Amino acid sequence: QDMPDARDDSTTTTTNSAAQAGVIAREVGRRRTFGIISHPDAGKTTLTEKLLLFSGAIQLAGTVKGRKSGRHATSDWMDIEKQRGISVASSVMQFDFRDHVINLLDTPGHQDFSEDTYRVLTAVDSALMVIDAAKGVEAQTIKLLEVCRMRATPIVTFMNKMDRETRDPLELLDEVESVLKIECAPVTWPIGMGKNFRGVYHLLKDEIMLFKAGEEKADGAFEIVKGIDNPRLAEMFPLEIEQLKMEVELVHGASHVFDLERFLSGVQTPVFFGSAINNFGVREILSALVDWAPAPRERDATVRSVLPSEVPFSGFVFKIQANMDPAHRDRIAFLRVCSGRFEKGMKVKHLRLGRDVKLSSVVTFMASSREQVEEAFAGDIIGLPNHGNMQIGDSFTEGEMLSFTGIPYFAPELFRSVRIRNPLKMKQLHKGLQQLGEEGAVQVFKPVLGSELILGAVGVLQFEVVASRLLNEYGVDAVFESASISSARWVSSDDKKALADFENSLGHNVAYDAAGNMAYLATSGVNLRLTQERWPKLTFHATREHA
Ligand code: G4P
After folding, report:
1. pLDDT by residue (tens digit) across 308-329?
2. How many angstroms separate the alpha carbon of residue 154 from the centre of ligand 1?
3. Backbone φ and ψ of 428, nearest 5°
4. Does the predicted interface ipTM exceed a cut of 0.95?
């Protein structure tokens, strides 16, 4: 008979798994997953659109969602939206560039700014910092960079809007270094600005890329002139080129030389100058992300760290997006793949619940094609439809009991107290807030004394979302009122008695969150400082890990 013996079988299996490991390693190596950190109006939307244009993922400018017109980048996203009845558009954009797979995770800004914005940054491997060169470092950029610093995320910097009157470039670098505490290594240097913006000088390649306004084509190549001493340049713009030579000398003397290791460890950022709206300098950023930014790296979990090239699948949920349509209660959990190969229909273990789940109707994100992707690798994001049983920070594996760490909750900065019009709905209110809290839509605190609940958020829209979801999903008509709280800190200590004393003496301002962690609700910055001084045995944390 033709029955293969056991040994043959095991050889085939070994070969298969070796082949699979090879495929996985190759796929991981060509992935780049990043997010954009910027202050509103610095040019994130414009730049996103240009990145998609360069990759060929979209053909027309002016189509990325987030514009005032509210159009979407491609019809595929709208299809997914329709199909799922959920607004997943532009949450994740996947596209190809130079044989690499790029995942661009949206970091909601403007009125959509929320804790999600912070948490998205725990799911990326690098970040692109966009700064309006006329304004310099702004408030939201500072906050987002702090989040990146928690995991030493490598950062590429883009100084945007050089076609306008901007601040002095050296001064900009100075500000980034002193305010954001990160070394700047200029890679390109601007020649003039505003009406006299001539282009950029590439310090590493010794070539000049000439600026031309209004390049809207995907392949809009700009003319390159080799060598800073090229006589053509002196003919074209003698004044600016003299200025450039002086500045370059200064830059060489005063700033850092690009160092890949320092970039990868998050202590140095390569800086590029350009103009997103003119497509100028955008290709250089994409190349920097492909050439320098890291492929998915190992991630810490409770029992060990997990390598992206490991064959068994694993991942964690970093964001839950609810459907705003009251007819559907669906939510989508965004899962970052950390290892192995995700295949549609595969069975995985939901570790917190100890339950097996079949991942069949999974949403994937491709900007360029209509097809639903059937597989995903480390660095990719998949969307799991769920009915409220997933929480931020939940881990999924093929069975191994491990839980990914480093997906924190952030101390809220805005507070509201909740009141309900109909006291009989108290139970629904608590249930609704408990679930919304677990989902990460808002943070819920119950002060030790008093009966009111306090909600905390980092973006004001979060309260509106919660109010409308309480009404639509739980039938609770809640009224939010301003609360005289300015910040919250989670409190921990090895000294149980100190904790109990703290709770007993400050019961109105000591509260428990939805996961049962103790927090202090400070009435002002001074109040927080004094409290910290008075209770030296307690530690006050601005973030807390998923339970
Ligand atoms: P955001 O997502 O970071 O909030 O910024 P967005 O891209 O929406 O850009 C904010 C404004 O800055 C937009 O103008 C945009 O056109 C402009 N902008 C972006 N990049 C550049 C650039 O390189 N040069 C110049 N001069 N402007 C730039 P807006 O008038 O607010 O909106 P729109 O009506 O043009 O869409």
Report:
1. 999 999 999 999 887 645 555 6
2. 25
3. -60, -40
4. yes
* Ligand 1 atom closest to 164 (CA): 26
d(CA 8, CA 68): 63
Q: How far is the CA of 132 from the centre of ligand 1 (A)?
A: 10
Please check whether residue 173 is in contact with residue 137, taking contact to mean a CB–CB distance below 8 angstroms. no
Beta carbon of 411 within 6 Å of any ligand 1 atom: no
Nearest CA among 328, 260, 322 for reference residue 292: 260
Beta bridge partners of 299: 306
From the list 299, 383, 307, the residue with the least C-alpha distance to 340 is 307
Q: What is the pTM of this model?
A: 0.88
100 lines ligand 1 (CB under 6 A): no
Ligand 1 probe mutation, 63, 67, 275, 277, most atoms within 8 A of CB: 277
**pLDDT tens digits along 237-265:** 888 999 999 999 999 888 899 999 999 99
CA–centroid distance, residue 49 to ligand 1 (Å): 11
CA atoms within 13 A on the CB side of 132: 17
* Nearest CA, atom 27, ligand 1: 161
Q: What is the pLDDT of residues 132-157, one digit of tens each?
A: 999 999 999 999 999 999 999 999 99
Residues 500 and 229: their CA atoms lie apart, in Å, by: 72
Angle between helices 282-291 and 44-55 (to 10 degrees): 70
Give the integer Cα–Cα distance in Å for 163 and 213.
Answer: 8
Q: Among 321, 354, 322, 359, which Cα is nearest to 337's?
A: 359
If one residue of 46, 67, 200 were mutated to test the ligand 1 pocket, choosing by the most ligand atoms within 8 A of its CB, it would be 46
Residues 109 and 117: beta-carbon distance below 8 Å: yes
Within 13 Å, how many C-alpha atoms sit on residue 505's CB side?
9
